[in-house]
Write a structure and sequence with these properties.
By secondary structure, the chain is an all-alpha fold. The protein is about 80% helix and about 0% strand.
């Protein structure tokens, strides 16, 4: 690690002088264009594999429903994965330059991602230490990059780097203390550290707003992760839905499920591409924390489609689960895009009433009348087609 740090120091000295000259000519208010690198895309693929593993927890059905224990485990597994990915993404957004040493840091992080993936299991206790090594390794490398870069930055950039590096260091230290405890106490300590990690940047919102994120790059990063997750959802659903010759019900279910996912994809990416103002400069926390709910609910929707096809859950539970997941996704996408939309494209209150009314109508009808799973998926496809129609034109 020391040769990497020495190389980083040399590169940052050169970069610091160069950026100072550029800023003197351009002015500090100019937002630098930042492109997503191929290594970032490769990095995303590993994390999507981790998300897929976490989603598998939702397929543990007992007595016709998913026990609260598994729902909680899904959330507790998902959050560290998402936060580890977000931490590195935010560093690259503010300070990344695609230098050799930054590539080395990301490659080292991939090794810890693999350790974390291999430790994801419903039987969490058995693999706790290896999971913790993977998570702490990821977060420590991110915090270390902030502490390196702060030495060669100045003014607000230096303050933000020190602030984030320190905040993440505190969270890492608290989570690491979980090694000294057993049973539920170790989890309480672990997630206290993660909560501190996540909350301190929110409390420091005003400080971070002085060094706003590159909105275009941030949206692109989250959109690419979401796109890969959409693709993974299609593949995982088709892996379960294997129609036999002449089984038109299965073929119809697969086709309508595909229409549903395409409608969701259309709504999301048309907004990202055409309806949001990427010149807005903010701390980016709405995008960051909003996508936690978007990605979680997308995984839940994919899981609910599989369970409905396999008929492994009770009808009433499947209704609450799939409509609850869709409501979470709708709420999160509406909130994230609303704040960054061009003013003339922002939704009105009556739009929200229309969307919620359609969902409520479908849910109540399905609750009163027992309908086939294909019919429910068709209703959700109609909802997202309407949602896409009103939010993308």
């Amino acid at each position: 690690m020391l040769p990497v740090m020495k190389y980083a120091s040399l590169v940052y000295k050169i970069k610091y002088i160069n950026d100072s000259l550029i800023n003197d000519k351009k002015g500090c208010g100019v937002v630098e264009e930042k492109k997503v690198t191929w290594l970032e895309l490769f990095y995303d693929l590993l994390f999507v594999a981790a998300v897929a593993t976490a989603t598998h927890v939702l397929l543990h059905v007992e007595q016709g429903h998913i026990h609260a224990e598994y729902l909680l485990k899904f959330v507790l597994i998902f959050i560290p994965i998402w936060w580890a990915w977000t931490g590195q993404t935010m560093f690259i957004n503010r300070f990344g330059k695609d230098f050799l040493h930054q590539r080395i840091f990301m490659i080292l992080q991939m090794l810890f991602v693999l350790i974390m993936i291999s430790s994801l299991s419903v039987d969490f206790d058995q693999y706790y230490v290896s999971f913790l090594i993977g998570y702490i390794g990821l977060r420590a490398l991110t915090a270390l990059q902030y502490l390196i870069v702060q030495k060669f930055e100045r003014d607000e950039r230096k303050k933000v780097a020190v602030f984030l590096g320190t905040c993440f260091g505190i969270g890492i230290f608290i989570s690491l203390l979980s090694l000294f405890f057993d049973s539920w106490v170790r989890y309480a300590v672990l997630y206290t550290g993660i909560a501190v990690d996540m909350i301190l940047p929110i409390l420091g919102h005003k400080r971070l707003a002085k060094l706003p994120t590159n909105t275009a790059h941030l949206l692109e990063r989250f959109a690419l992760l979401t796109l890969i997750l959409f693709g993974e959802s299609v593949v995982s659903i088709l892996a379960v839905i294997q129609p036999q010759k002449g089984d038109w019900n299965t073929i119809l279910f697969a086709g309508i499920s595909f229409v549903l996912i395409i409608a969701m994809w259309w709504q999301y990416f048309e907004n990202v591409e055409k309806k949001v103002n990427k010149a807005i400069q903010r701390a980016g926390q709405t995008i960051i924390y909003g996508h936690l709910i978007i990605l979680m609910s997308l995984s839940m929707i994919a899981a609910s489609i599989k369970l409905m096809f396999l008929h492994e859950v009770h009808y009433t539970f499947s209704l609450y689960f799939v409509f609850g997941s869709v409501l979470l996704y709708f709420t999160a996408t509406t909130l994230v895009f609303h704040q960054y939309r061009f003013e003339e494209h922002r939704l009105k209150v009556y739009h929200l009433g229309l969307f919620l009314g359609i969902l409520a109508l479908f849910f109540i009808v399905n609750l009163i009348l027992i309908v086939p799973s294909t019919f429910i998926i068709g209703e959700l496809a109609i909802f997202f087609i309407i949602y896409a129609r009103f939010t993308t034109t």
